[in-house]
Amino acid sequence: MFLKKVKETGVATHIIKAILIILFAVNLIVMVFAATDRDNIDEAPMGSFGVKDFNTGWTLMHNGEKEAVTLPFYADSAPGDELIISNTLPMNLSNGMTLMIRASMEDVVVYVDGRKRTEYSTNSVRDMSFYIPSAYVVTELDEHDCGKPIAIHFTVKSRGSINPITIAHGNNGWYKVIKSSLAVNVIALMVFVCGVLITLAALILGKRYKTDSAGCLGLLVMDVTMWMFSESALRQFIFTRPSLTRIFSYLTLELIAALACMYFDEVQHRVYHKRYLVGEAASALLVTVNIILWATGVCELYESLPASHAMAAAVSVMIIINIIQDIKSGRIRSYRINMIGALVFIALSLIELARFYFAEFVIFGSYMCIGLIGLMIATVMQTIYDILAEFRAHEGQRTAMMNKTIETIAGAIDARDEYTGGHSERVGMYAHLLAKEIANEYDLSEEDIIRIHYIGLVHDIGKIGVADNILNKAGKLSNEEYSLMKRHTEIGYELMSSMGGEIEGVLDGIRFHHERYDGKGYPDGLTGEDIPLVARILCIADSYDAMTSNRVYRKRLTGEEVRSELLRCSGSQFDPKLAKAFTALLEHGDLTENTVEGMAVDSHGNVTASARLESRLQSDLLSGAKIIHPSHIRMLCYIIKLMEKKGMAYRVIFAGPSDETTEGTELTSYIKKLSNAVSSKLDNHDISVRYSDRLSIIALYEKDSAAADNIINSLKAELPGLTAELF
User: Identical fold at 181-391 and 610-726?
Assistant: First the structure.
């Protein structure tokens, strides 16, 4: 248990951990070196993946004019223009070689020696729209093509971009394409899988946790990665019918704005729900209209793309405006992690959009993929943070409730004992300070120290099972009574055992806090460090409060007497190390008695009304005065103390006849009149109880001095010879 542990060096554990971490790091370095080092001449051969660029020596024919060009090349052209590039094939061709060029939405027809060899166009693909998807066009060559003229005809659909051309053996030309695109596609696949998992997790956990934003993120991630696959340079490998990307590529892109609205609506806790609802509806309407226009042949999906881009840009601006408003209002604190990912995603998405309009030779998706990863990481972190925060809040509420329960139990314990008011609270505080002082030496965490404090509050819970005539006996206990009193440690232990005692160490603290270091304590006669640390701490704290508080059989000890007693009992009653630490706290002024002349004080060091009343009761009992019902007065003290903890106060008045000769029937009549007069002036929250034969206590709840004086003056006017004053 935490309270039994001592400080350990743990050298062997740290050395082993360090060795394992170093070995892991070395292994990682070797792995990275193996992946990047080019000195592989002695390694097993992979064969040739040689690819030759065929980008020079081309002549461009456009609008009847010729010019020499080097690929890639962008021709200033309009949709419908025909671009023709021509060249002479190399002389070193062999059978099985291929020529590859990427068609960027243009119709492409390849002629070798004046004969059409390959065609990729709207007319050559079944059910193809005017805007044909980009694709790699492969033309097979053989040794008979050496030195022959080659011409490639492009029908411009969008931009007039002519991409690089390669010649390779077999399908080696794809090796370069795959190698350059593999990383993005693998990442996109991983992100897509993450999107699926996030969506499933949100559905599963949604009943218990707030995962709506994560669910919307999953849909957004899957949609964006689906678009990335549709635009991938490898889509001829990914899709058996890549021509269908002319449909779902645009639809997935157009849905991004609507899904982004759904996601950010949840992230921002629906504060801007109406705005996002409008964005979602507008996006859905735009997609629907575009589908109808395409299906009816009015316009192609590609032609309606600018409207979808404008919608995405408008949504981005709206999101940024909402974030700025949340920053100003302070609401950003609830999703500040998400905000970072959101801004990164929006920025990179806008860069992706700009590349579409202004970059000439690009493959889309890389920037948005990075943005998605950032958004996903931020959302997962925010979701985890929110779940943990909710858990911590529930745990905090549970802990607070438990602490309040403990404090209430402590107060109830003290309420039964007429002579130790506030004892449990003070023992908890003294134990806390001592535990904090020895924390480094005994390896106690802050949580351990707090536990010790609360164990101190309930260390005397077993007194609930001690008879009142023993617990509150004014004189010395008989041997039989003392043996029963000592059982409060075992009673408390069994009581908390049956309740399950959730605070670690609580059972040890309750059972063993009266054990002595020399083995002469109770209930089990443990010695030295066999006594749990928490019990040794409580033993000193308990004894210190007993020495600095007034008891029915004696007044509090002086500061010097307390120090002398601590030193005298060091090694016998107290653990000598702890006694030394406790004495040091006293000498340095870090621990002072939480009493004034043996009376409890509030947080400002002022003696409380409940403590003054307790002290009066103790003093009168010590002097032999006859108190009618001490338990009633003690209960009143407890009630007043509860209100004091809430910042509310009672004003206490002692009232009774001033004429000492008033006795017998005359006194009884006078007290009855006083009782009737007091009752007529009190409200439901005020209390009146008999203190002695001649005195009554009037406790006025939340009344100022003026109200108290009015009651006193009114009582004196009604009852001649009455003595009544604020106590």
Answer: no
Which two three-digit tokens encode residue 564?
A: 């002398």
Q: Which helix (H) or strand (E) holds 439?
A: helix 439-442
**Quick one: average pLDDT of 266-277?**
89
CATH dotted code for 610-726: 3.30.70.270
Q: Is 269 helix (H, G, I), strand (E, B) or coil?
A: coil
Q: Which of 358, 300, 306 is nearest to 161 (CA)?
A: 358
Q: What is the mean pLDDT of residues 234-252?
A: 84
Q: Looking at the domain 51-170, which fold is it? A: Jelly Rolls (2.60.120)
Q: Which residues of 478-506 are buried (b: 16+ CB within 10 A; e: fewer)?
A: eeebeebbbebbbbbbbbbeeeebebebb
Superfamily covering domain 417-600: Hypothetical protein af1432 (1.10.3210.10)
Q: Are 369 and 187 in contact (CB under 8 A)?
A: yes
Place of tokens 């040689």: 50
- Continuous segment of H or E residues that includes residue 488: helix 488-499
- Tokens, residue 139: 């033309």
74/58 Cα distance (integer angstroms): 13
Per-residue confidence (pLDDT) for residue 27, from 0 to 100: 87
Quick check: 227 and 252 in contact, CB under 8 A? yes
Q: What's the CA gap between 116 and 711, in Å, rounded? A: 117
Is the distance from CB of 609 to CB of 702 less than 8 angstroms? no
Residue appearing with tokens 């589908």: 291
The CB density around residue 122, as the number of other CB atoms within 10 Å, is 14
Element (H, E) at 722: strand 722-726
Least confident of 269-273, 388-392, 698-702: 388-392
Mean pLDDT of the chain: 84
Q: Residue 232 to residues 53, 136, 228, 440, 612: CA-CA distances in angstroms?
A: 22, 11, 6, 60, 84
- Cα–Cα distance measured from residue 405 to residue 601, given in angstroms and rounded to the nearest whole number: 22
The separation between CA 113 and the C-alpha centre of its own chain, rounded to angstroms, equals 71
Residue 384 dihedral angles phi and psi, to the nearest 5°: -60, -45
Cβ atoms within 10 Å, residue 317: 12
Percent of the chain topping pLDDT 70 = 89
- Range from 320-329, 333-342, 400-409, 709-718 carrying the lowest mean pLDDT: 400-409
pLDDT at 602: 65
CATH class for the region spanning 181-391 = mainly alpha
* pLDDT tens track for 430-446: 999 999 999 988 888 88
Name the 3-class secondary structure at 122.
Answer: coil
pTM of the model: 0.55
Mean pLDDT score, 643-659: 84
676-694 pLDDT, tens per residue? 988 888 888 899 999 998 8
Domain definitions of the chain by residue range = 51-170, 181-391, 417-600, 610-726
CA distance 686 to 651: 10
CB atoms within 10 A of CB 80: 8
> Which carries the bigger pLDDT value, residue 127 or residue 60?
60
Cα→Cα distances 44→30, 50, 72, 176, Å:
19, 17, 36, 21
Which pLDDT does position 272 carry in this prediction? Answer: 92
Q: What would the DSSP string read from start to end of 347-367?
A: HHHHHHHHHHHH-SS--TTHH
Mean pLDDT of 133-150: 93
Q: Is 618 helix (H, G, I), strand (E, B) or coil?
A: helix
Position 615 scores a pLDDT of 77
Query: What dihedral angle (degrees, nearest 10) is formed by the CA atoms of 227, 231, 235, 240?
Result: 60
SS3 42: coil
Q: pLDDT class for 3, splitting at 50, 70, 90?
A: very low
CA distances from 717 to 333, 344, 711 (A): 63, 81, 10
State both tokens at 664.
């017998």
